[in-house]
Specification:
The chain has 406 residues and is of the alpha/beta class. It folds into 3 domains: 11-119, Orthogonal Bundle (Fumarate Reductase Iron-sulfur Protein, Chain B, domain 2), CATH 1.10.1060; 123-277, Rossmann fold (3-Layer(aba) Sandwich), CATH 3.40.50; 280-403, Rossmann fold. It is 47% helix and 8% strand. The protein contains 19 helices and 9 strands. The chain has helices at 11-19, 31-35, 44-59, 61-66, 73-83, 91-95, 102-115, 125-134, 174-178, 183-195, 212-216, 220-237, 247-256, 270-280, 309-316, 342-345, 347-363, 374-387, 396-403, and strands spanning 159-160, 168-171, 200-202, 241-244, 266-269, 292-295, 322-323, 368-371, 392-395. The strands form 2 sheets. Strands 1-3-2-4-5 form a 5-stranded parallel beta sheet, with helices on both faces. Strands 7-6-8-9 form a 4-stranded parallel beta sheet, sandwiched between helices. Strand 8, helix 18 and strand 9 form a beta-alpha-beta unit. Helix 17 (347-363) crosses helix 18. It is globular, with a radius of gyration of 22 Å.
Length: 406
């Protein structure tokens, strides 16, 4: 009989799994298990109880007294699939009365599944190979990573941070660098920094994937290699600040990298930096945009990092904009449906969850739906177009760039 190797489930993890009170509060807000489909095993409670059942069957008191039980392979496969249907949005963490850090629990569960040969999903294979071979998930050569900058106006100057000392290192991220539908996010960020006379540069083609996708799918060792490469680049560039316009990169560099190596510079999301530039008067927004706008809180920016007001303060600086809130906002915001590898492995489920968020936006009466995460932007825009919605999807930096004083 093959026993599960629970070495990746540390003492704190095991305590957390045992601390679940089975109250079911999480089942009502879970985007994958409570709203998009009715399946108890997909819910946070369902996953916790099933994993707890498995490790106690082989390592619990009864197992020690009477011997471990065989766990049917089909049940292990089912748990693995349900674990990867989670977007790791963190909604369950906000409502858990036991205050369990479910975000860490799901990532740890996936690390455990990978360690036992039960993850990630086969649909993730191409994505993972691309990151390992090309340093990005888009099967694009590294030599094309900085190509997005060719579309910038000639007066926007970006330093090569490895050749010239700069105060701010702009970490572009894979999606903004490679996806043709998202490149405007990088372009507008560069335009805004240039407009505010920020001394900034990028790593150019030397920038690698931050490793977020690998971390969220449980491939911790693979992600560590990516992180070590980037940390080495940060040390060579030696900026005072690292800024990124990707919520996933922000979470990874700010929260995950310090567990792997020391990140000397201050790590900021672009919404934090733009707020500082507006407050100091270095950036002025004076062009009117006479429309209603609603903001979608990215999970990695909001629930994972607590940045809720920064984007909204920026919107208040844009003349003419009327801000309307969706019923579920800030810590209660719905997930876009794409995170945690769900869009890759379960595209239909991802679009169903995204559709619920578009429903929220349409009910708000907004003309514009904006966000500050390339993955959320991509997911929501795809659903808007598929449904023929009248909503206009924009990145927050697009609105800022449009309103910037010349």
């Amino acid at each position: 009989m093959k026993k599960l190797d629970i070495s990746k489930l540390d003492v704190l993890s095991l305590i957390r799994y045992d601390a679940c009170t089975r109250c079911g509060e999480c089942t009502t807000t879970c985007p994958t298990g409570g709203e998009a489909q009715e399946d108890e095993l997909v819910t946070p409670r369902g996953k916790i109880l099933r994993l707890r059942e498995f490790y106690k069957a082989q390592y619990g008191l009864k197992a020690k007294l009477f011997g471990p039980k065989e766990i049917p392979p089909d049940q292990l496969a089912e748990l693995s699939e349900r674990a990867y249907e989670c977007t790791i949005c963190g909604q369950c963490k906000t409502v858990c009365p036991a205050h369990l850090d479910t975000i860490e629990m799901w990532e740890n569960m996936r690390e455990f599944l990978v360690h036992n040969g039960l993850g990630p999903m086969p649909e993730h294979d191409q994505l993972i190979k691309s990151i390992e071979n090309y340093d990005n998930p888009w099967m694009q050569p590294r030599t094309q990573r900085s190509r997005w900058a060719r579309r910038l106006e000639t007066d926007v100057k970006i330093k090569d941070a490895l050749e010239e000392k700069c105060e701010v290192l702009y970490f572009v991220g894979c999606t903004a660098a490679y996806d043709p539908n998202i490149k405007e996010m990088a372009l507008n960020t560069a335009r805004i920094l240039s407009n505010a006379k920020v001394d900034f540069g990028t790593l150019g083609n030397e920038e690698g994937c931050c490793g977020s996708t690998l971390l969220r799918t449980g491939l911790i060792d693979n992600a560590r290699k990516m992180a070590e490469k980037n940390i080495e680049m940060f040390e060579r560039a030696a900026p005072s600040i690292i800024v990124t316009s990707c919520a996933g990169c922000y979470k990874t560099i700010r929260q995950d990298y310090p567990k792997i190596g020391k990140v000397q510079p201050k790590v900021m999301h672009i919404t934090e930096m733009v707020n500082e530039l507006l407050d100091s008067g270095r950036l002025v927004l004076d062009k009117r945009i006479e429309q209603k706008v609603t903001f979608h809180d990215p999970c990695h920016l909001g629930r994972h990092n607590g940045l809720y007001e920064e984007p909204r303060r920026i919107l208040k600086h844009v003349p003419g904009l009327e801000i309307v809130e969706m019923e579920r906002n800030r810590s209660e915001s719905r997930c876009c449906g794409a995170g945690g590898g769900v869009k890759t492995a379960f595209p239909d489920l991802a679009q169903k969850i995204s559709g619920l968020r578009i429903d929220d936006a349409e009910k708000s009466g907004a003309d514009i739906l904006t966000t500050s995460c390339p993955f959320c932007y991509q997911s929501l825009k795809t659903t808007i177009e598929a449904r023929g919605s009248k909503l206009k999807m924009t990145d927050l930096m697009e609105l800022v760039a449009s309103a910037c004083k010349d």
